[in-house]
């Protein structure tokens, strides 16, 4: 039996062929789950179209318990009305939930007041299982939201 294996190895070495001797041994040496990255982008606007967000996000890791979520984008205020005429600011909110805690927690709130201007932002969160976003208008002096989009749940790739 040993002489047959030696002969097969010698033939494979001289002809340039590869022999698969123990695939299970190589499979055991490979990591069980290799980390992968996930990237995507989205656009969202308030129900009246006067507040707009363009953003891109990424997820490093493919496990709900061990990952890093990063989001960056810009919030645009398209309301040209003055405050006296009912003008409002643009508003964007990011919420996340983890597999340990099923409740949604605010991760980032961004407010931009000023027609035809954009506020840029960055968000980073760890170990999230779900992330959702919405875009609204908001009062200048307070935090009363108006004409909010529906919550949009981001695809995190797992």
3D architecture notes:
The chain has helices at residues 2-15, 23-29, and strands spanning 37-45, 51-63, 66-77, 89-97, 105-112, 117-126, 130-138, 145-146, 152-153. By secondary structure, the chain is mainly β. It has a single domain (37-153), classed as Immunoglobulin-like, CATH 2.60.40. The strands form two sheets. Strands 4, 5, 7, 8 and 9 form a five-stranded antiparallel sheet that branches. Strand 1 (37-45) and strand 2 (51-63) form a beta hairpin. Mean pLDDT is 83; it is low at 1-34.
In whole angstroms, the N-to-C terminal distance is: 48 Å
What class do helices, strands and sheet pairing give? mainly beta
Could you say which overall geometry the principal axes of the C-alpha atoms support?
A: elongated
The CATH first-level class comes to: Mainly Beta
Give the averaged pLDDT, no decimals.
83
Round the Cα radius of gyration to an integer and report it: 26 Å
β-strand percent reads over 45%
Low-confidence stretches: 1-34
Q: What is the helical fraction, as a range of percent? A: 10-25%
CATH topology: Immunoglobulin-like
Number of domains: 1
Order of helices and strands: HHEEEEEEEEE
Using the 3D structure, state the CATH architecture.
Sandwich
Number of strands: 9
Put simply, the count of helices is 2
Largest sheet report: 5 strands, antiparallel
Report a brief summary of the structure.
With 158 residues, the chain is mainly beta.
């Amino acid at each position: 039996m040993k002489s047959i294996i030696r002969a097969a190895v010698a033939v494979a070495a001289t002809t340039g062929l590869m022999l698969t001797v123990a695939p299970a041994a190589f499979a055991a040496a490979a990591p069980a789950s290799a980390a992968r990255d996930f990237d995507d982008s989205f656009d969202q606007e308030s129900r009246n179209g006067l507040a707009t967000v363009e953003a891109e996000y990424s997820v490093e890791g493919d496990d709900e318990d061990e990952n890093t979520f990063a989001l960056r984008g810009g919030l645009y205020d398209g309301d040209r009305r003055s405050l006296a005429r009912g003008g409002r600011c643009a508003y964007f909110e990011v919420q996340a939930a983890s597999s340990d805690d099923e409740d949604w927690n605010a991760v980032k709130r961004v407010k931009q007041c000023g027609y035809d201007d954009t506020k840029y932002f960055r968000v980073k969160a760890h170990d999230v299982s779900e992330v959702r976003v919405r875009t609204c208008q908001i009062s200048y002096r307070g935090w009363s939201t108006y004409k909010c989009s529906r919550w949009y749940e981001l695809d995190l790739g797992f």
